[in-house]
Amino acid sequence: MVIFERVGLRYGLGPEVLRDVSFALPPGSLHFLTGASGAGKSSLLSLLYLARRPSRGTVQLFGRDVAGLARADFPALRRQIGVVFQDFRLLDHLSVLDNVALPLRVQGIDDAQVREHAAELLVWVGLGDHLDAFPPTLSGGQKQRVAIARAVIGRPRLLIADEPTGNVDDRIAVRLMRLFEELNRLGTTIVIATHNLQLVRESRHPELRLEAGTLARAVKGAA
Amino acid sequence: MTGPGGALGLERDRERRWIAGVIGTLSLLATLALGLALSLSAAGAQWRADFEGILTVEIPAEDDAAAQAAKVAAALAVLRADPAIERAEALGRARAQALLAPWLGQTPLDALPLPALIDARARKGAKVDLPALQARLDAAVAGARADDHARWLAGFLALARAAGIVAFVVTAAVAIAAAGAVGFATRAGLAMHREAVDLLHLVGAADSYIAGQFARAALRLALAGSALGALAGAVVLAVAHAVATASGALAFPLPALDLAGWAAIGLVPAGATAVAAASAYATVLRALARIV
Question: Which residue, of A14, A18, B22, B162, has the greatest Cβ tally within 10 A?
C-alpha cells in the first residue's frame, strides 16, 4: 500500500527535515505516527497525501513510484487518499454539506447522488441537523467531524489523520477513534498522527515514532 | 450546487469586480469601432450599387446658351451611338441648380453661366469603354468630360476598407487588453485563494476543474461588463447616426446599421466573454503547472 525507502525531504536549500525514513504500511493496517513538535510528522504526512515529492529516496503509493508520476496522474491517486487536517481546512463560504461533498464534486459525480451521500455521512458523524450550517458557526469538535466526513466520503484506500483528537474532549476523542477503527475494519489503511501517547498505549495498533527527522521506531506491522 | 460562487467562492471577491468595468469599457470601444466600420462598409456597398452603370457628361459653361445647347446635342449623339449605353438625357438648368444648392444655397443663379450635365445609363451587364468614349467626345465637343464616378468611389471604398482595418486592429487590441487584464486578475485571485486551491488539489481536483472555476467566474464578470459596454456603444452609435443625419452634418449619407450589423455588434460581448474565460482558464493552467 505504502512504501518509503530511505526518504529524505528538505524545503528549498534548507536542512533535511526527514532523513533516511523507511517503512511499509500493509493494506488494511492502522498506524500511529508520533513524535515531538518539529520531529517531521507534518512533513511525512505531506509526502503521504502527495502534497510534496521527496527530495531523495523512494515513495511508493498503491504500487506506483511518486517520483515517476506525471502531474496529470496526481488527481486519480489523491482521490484514493482521505486527509483529516489538524486545522480542518474547511471552506468557510461553503455549507457543511458542500464541504463534505467537495471530494465527489471535483470528480464530476451527479449532484443529487453527492448530496444524498454527504447527508448520510453527516448523520453518521452526528451532524445530521447541521447540513446547512457554515463552518464559522461550528465548534472545534463539530468541525473535526465535518473534516472526517469529507475525508471518508470518497471511500479512500488510505486515510491520513493529523491530530484528529487534538481539538476535542476525551469523550469525542474516544468516539473518533472508534470511527477510525470501524473504517479500518472495513479495509481502509489508516495513519493517525498524534501527540496523545495514552491513546497510542491503549491501542493495539503499531506506532511509527519520528525523532528529529528520522524514524526512531517502526514496530509491529511496519517493515 | 457548491454554494454561491462555486468551490472557491470567487464571485464573492469584491477585489476582482473591477474586471467587469475594464471589459465593459473595452467592449464599448470595440463596439464603436465595429459600428463605424460596418456603417462605412454598408455605405460603400450601397454607393457602388447606386452608381453601377451611371455616367455623367459635363459640358463647360458658356455665355452663349444656344452654343451650349448645340454642344449638348452633339454629346448626346455621341453617347446614344455607343452600343453599351442604354439611354442618355440632358439635365435641365433647374436640375443643375438643384444639384448646386447644397454648396451655393438659395442664391439666384439665373445670371450665372452653369455647366450643362448629361445623365447616361449603361445597358445592364455592358461595360462602357470610358477612354474610347472620352476620345469620341473630345472629337465632337470641345471640353466635354465623361465621368463614371469610379475615381471618387474608389477613394471612398478605400476609406471604408481602411476603417475596416482600423476596426479589426482596435478589436484585436481590445481582445489582447481584455485577456491581459483578466490574466492579471486571475493571478491575483489564485494568490488570494491559494489555500483553497491547495485543498481542492488534495481532495483530488484536476487542474482543469480549478481552471474551470476561475473561467466561470471570469465569464460571469465579463458577460455583465461587456453586455453593458456593447449596449452603451450601440446607443452611442444609434444616437450619433440619428443626430448627424437629422442635422445634415454628414457630407454623404451614411446608412444606419442593418440587422446583420446589429448582429455583428451583438458578437462583441460574446467575443469579450469568450476571451475572458479562455484567458482565465489558460492563466490558471499555466500557474498550476509550476506547483506540485
Answer: A18
Helix, strand, or coil here: B119? strand
Tell me how far CA of residue A152 lies from CA of A136, B113, B231, B252, in angstroms.
Answer: 22, 101, 50, 74
CA B135 vs. chain centroid, Å, equals: 39
Digitized pLDDT (tens) for each residue of chain B, 292 residues in all? 454 447 888 877 777 788 999 999 999 999 999 998 888 888 888 888 878 788 899 998 888 888 888 899 999 999 999 998 999 998 877 777 777 776 676 666 666 778 889 999 988 888 888 889 999 999 988 889 998 888 878 888 888 888 889 988 988 999 999 999 999 999 999 999 999 999 999 999 999 999 999 999 999 999 999 999 999 999 999 998 888 888 766 666 677 788 888 999 999 999 999 999 999 999 999 999 987 5
Please, are residues B142 and B2 in contact by the beta-carbon 8 Å criterion?
no
Q: Which residue of A has its CA nearest to B195?
A: A89
On whether the CB atoms of residues B186 and A62 are closer than 8 A, the answer is: no
Kindly list the distances between the CA atom of residue B249 and the CA atoms of A124, B243, B289, in Å, as whole numbers in the listed order. 78, 8, 57
The Cα–Cα gap between A18 and A7 comes to 7
Return the pLDDT at B287. 94
Q: What order do you get walking across the sheet with A158-162 strand by strand?
A: A81-84, A158-162, A189-193, A30-34, A207-211, A214-218
Question: Rounded distance, CA B76 to CA A221, Å?
Answer: 115
ipTM comes to: 0.89
CB contact under 8 A, A51 and B200: no
Is A83 close to B202, i.e. CB distance below 8 A?
yes
CB B12 within 8 A of CB B5: yes
Q: Which residue of B has its CA nearest to A154?
A: B203
Radius of gyration of chain B (CA): 31
Q: What is the residue whose three cell numbers read 452603370?
A: B53
**Could you give phi then psi for residue A187, rounded to 5 degrees?**
115, -5
CA A34 distance to own-chain centroid: 14
Rg of chain A's alpha carbons, rounded to an integer? 17
Cross-chain CB nearest to B204 (options A53, A78, A93): A78
Alpha-carbon span B229 to B110, nearest angstrom? 54
Contact A78 B201 (CB under 8 A): yes
The count of residues in chain B is 292
